[in-house]
Write a structure and sequence with these properties.
Strands 1-2-3-10-5-8 form a six-stranded antiparallel β-sheet, with helices on one face. Strands 7-6-9 form a three-stranded antiparallel β-sheet, with no helix packed on it. The chain has helices spanning about 10-20, 25-35, 40-55, 65-75, 85-90, 95-100, 215; strands spanning about 110-115, 120, 130-135, 145-150, 150-160, 160, 165-170, 175, 185, 190-200, 200-205. The longest helix is centred in the N-terminal third of the chain and has 20 residues, at about 40-55. Helices cover about 30% and strands about 20% of the residues. It has a single domain (about 1-55, about 70-220), classed as Jelly Rolls (Sandwich). By secondary structure, the protein is α+β, with helices and mostly antiparallel strands. The two termini are about 30 Å apart. Helix 1 packs across helix 3 (about 40-55). It contains seven helices and eleven strands.
Length: about 220
């Protein structure tokens, strides 16, 4: 599956993900990419092994007597233990991490129209820095040309889309930041669904783009 993947997280993201220090929203996107990409899974195994070796050389530190009880209580907490049904059901063939984000896997995704070609379905992730959502581009649909006011992590989950720079297919991982102007367009042969984490709204390049601002606000949750 990874043979068709051309875009990957950079090494610093993989190191942070392996160390457990990457923020929640980017971690969700990296996890989704790993579902598709054997190359990055192999690299993660290497990084995990390096981390384990480093841990073996460290001197043990004294900890509070109640820390173990506190950690075990959190592990046993129902809020942190997704149900068997949630784990086992893979939404539309998407990565398991996407299924776990669903509140009720039996219910349909709730899509909100942003434009004639673009719909969004947001996830609740328990953090306040990024809006994490699925974005669906209809077959052949064009998203308005736009800039980014903050960071955006995107993983293609289904289908493909293109912009002025390249064609992006299932599993591709993209990172956008302010100054990255582009106009995504869905492939003609089917809809494209992406997982995205945005730290700020996009900025429509059209002179009348300000009229869309009320619909472009992000809602981290």
């Amino acid at each position: 599956m990874s043979n068709s993947i051309s875009f990957h997280p950079d090494s610093s993201l993989l190191v942070e993900f392996s160390a457990g220090s990457l923020e929640v929203a980017p971690s969700i996107c990296v996890s989704a990419h790993l579902h598709f990409c054997r190359k990055c899974r192999v690299e993660m195994l290497r990084l995990d092994q390096v981390g384990s070796e480093i841990m073996d050389t460290m001197e043990p530190a004294a900890i509070d007597d109640g820390l173990l009880d506190s950690v075990m209580a959190k592990i046993d907490s129902p809020a942190l233990a997704p149900s068997e049904k949630t784990i086992s059901k893979n939404i539309e063939g998407f990565p398991a991490s996407i299924s776990i984000l669903m509140k009720d896997v039996e219910s349909a995704l709730t899509w909100r129209s942003i434009s004639s070609s673009l719909e969004i379905s947001q996830f609740e992730t328990g953090q306040s820095d990024f809006e994490v959502a699925l974005h669906k581009i209809e077959a052949g649909g064009k998203v308005p040309k736009h800039d980014h006011e903050g960071s955006e992590y995107t993983v293609v989950l289904k289908g493909s889309f293109s912009d002025e720079n390249a064609v992006y297919r299932e599993g591709d991982f993209l990172f956008r930041q302010p100054g990255d102007v582009h106009q995504p367009m869905g492939a003609q042969n089917g809809e494209c669904i992406c997982l995205s984490a945005l730290s700020a709204p996009i900025k429509i390049s059209h002179p009348l783009g300000f009229l869309m601002k009320p619909w472009l606000r992000i809602n981290p949750m």
